């Protein structure tokens, strides 16, 4: 069968074009990936971050870096504007005195501690890497990136020098954010975690992990309540599961002590205070030990009962430098069951 020579010529040209296209596509893809990875908004190290301030439309968040013998952490405050009172419909009478309905409500302020999440945020902010650089844009395009009415302003203090960002709209897909550096006018796309962390600081940045170490690292615990104390050992059964036992009977689980330790471990701070209220008492303290020695501790504190109310409970550990307020219902159970553990 005779084949037209022109067919092979066209086929050859098609193959050459395809190879060239693949080479260009691969090169462009690599160049794009490289340029995205190399976009640096500003230089620095996470340890250079001493202060972070986010000012949104109805909130303000401040993070202050602190250092103690246990390491670096952040003390944060979040102030949210109170919701405006609902107006009472004209002409409607319900017998209620509405004289105070339109009085301005105080802003809600929350104090929180941040260790792990605060450190991760500092690492995102210094050095600040952008996913891509957009460049300078005119005012006619500001709305396109949500920068005609920014969602908020971020001020990061690095070694005493302030750097600012204006948050715009979410990028297509909603995962990341457009930002503008007001000092240069440059627009970038950055990781959305930065905006989400500062916008929802009291939930995303608040520290809830009680310790740096893991449960498997513990071999002993000393439970102290007043002038009484008791030692517990961490043992493993035939199935490999860990349980708490009396040191004199390490192979036999002490279910009462185990259940109590589980309840204590479930306590998690919902907010923090700079110092526990005066007149409080220590309900119980547990000191943990591992193969390498002391690991840390947890201390449950009980504040004085307010007039006509119930007392509040606080938790302090080697990782939580401030008293963290915990749900009173669970804390009360821990206190009530303590007598069955330490006799």
Give an overview in words.
By secondary structure, the protein is an alpha+beta fold. The chain has two domains: 42-81 and 105-204, no CATH class; 215-340, no CATH class. It contains six helices and 19 strands. The protein has helices spanning 5-37, 116-125, 192-199, 201-204, 255-266, 328-337, and strands spanning 40-42, 49-56, 59-68, 71-80, 108-114, 128-129, 132-136, 152-158, 161-170, 176-180, 186-191, 218-225, 228-236, 242-245, 271-272, 281-290, 293-302, 313-317, 324-326. The strands form three sheets. Strands 5-4-3-2-8-9-10-11-7 form a nine-stranded antiparallel β-sheet. An eight-stranded antiparallel β-sheet has the order 14-13-12-16-17-18-19-15, with helices on one face. A hairpin with a 5-residue loop joins strand 13 (228-236) and strand 14. Helix 5 (255-266) runs antiparallel to helix 6. It is elongated, with a radius of gyration of 29 Å. The termini are far apart. Residues 7-11 and 18-37 have low confidence and may be disordered.
């Amino acid at each position: 069968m005779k084949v037209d020579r022109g067919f092979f010529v066209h086929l050859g040209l098609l193959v050459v074009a395809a190879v060239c296209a693949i080479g260009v596509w691969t090169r462009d893809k690599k160049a794009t990936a490289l340029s995205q990875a190399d976009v640096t908004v500003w230089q620095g190290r996470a340890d250079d971050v001493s202060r972070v301030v986010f000012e949104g439309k109805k909130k303000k968040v401040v993070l202050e870096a602190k250092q103690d013998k246990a390491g670096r952490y952040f003390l944060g405050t979040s102030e949210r504007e109170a919701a405006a009172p609902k107006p009472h419909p004209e002409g409607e009478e319900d017998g209620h005195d509405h004289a105070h309905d339109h009085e301005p409500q105080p802003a809600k302020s929350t104090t929180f501690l941040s260790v792990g999440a605060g450190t991760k945020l500092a690492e995102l902010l210094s050095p600040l890497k952008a996913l891509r650089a957009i460049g300078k844009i005119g005012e006619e395009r500001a709305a396109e990136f949500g920068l005609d009415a920014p969602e908020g302003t971020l001020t990061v203090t690095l070694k005493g020098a302030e750097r600012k960002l204006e948050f715009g709209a979410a990028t297509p897909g909603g995962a990341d954010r457009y930002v503008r550096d007001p000092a240069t006018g440059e627009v970038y796309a950055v990781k959305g975690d930065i905006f989400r962390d500062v916008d929802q600081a009291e939930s995303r940045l608040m520290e809830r992990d009680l310790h740096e170490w893991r449960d498997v690292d513990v071999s002993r615990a000393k439970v102290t309540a007043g002038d009484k104390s008791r030692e517990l050992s961490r043992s493993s059964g035939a199935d490999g599961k860990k349980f708490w036992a009396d040191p004199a009977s390490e192979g036999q689980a002490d279910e009462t002590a185990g259940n109590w330790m589980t309840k204590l471990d479930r306590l998690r701070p919902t907010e923090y205070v700079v110092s526990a209220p005066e007149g409080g008492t220590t309900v119980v303290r547990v000191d943990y030990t591992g193969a390498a020695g002391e690991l840390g501790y947890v201390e449950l504190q009980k504040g004085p009962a307010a007039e006509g109310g119930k007392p509040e409970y606080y938790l302090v550990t080697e990782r939580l430098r401030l008293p963290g307020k915990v749900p009173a219902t669970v804390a009360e159970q821990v206190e009530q069951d303590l007598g069955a553990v330490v006799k």
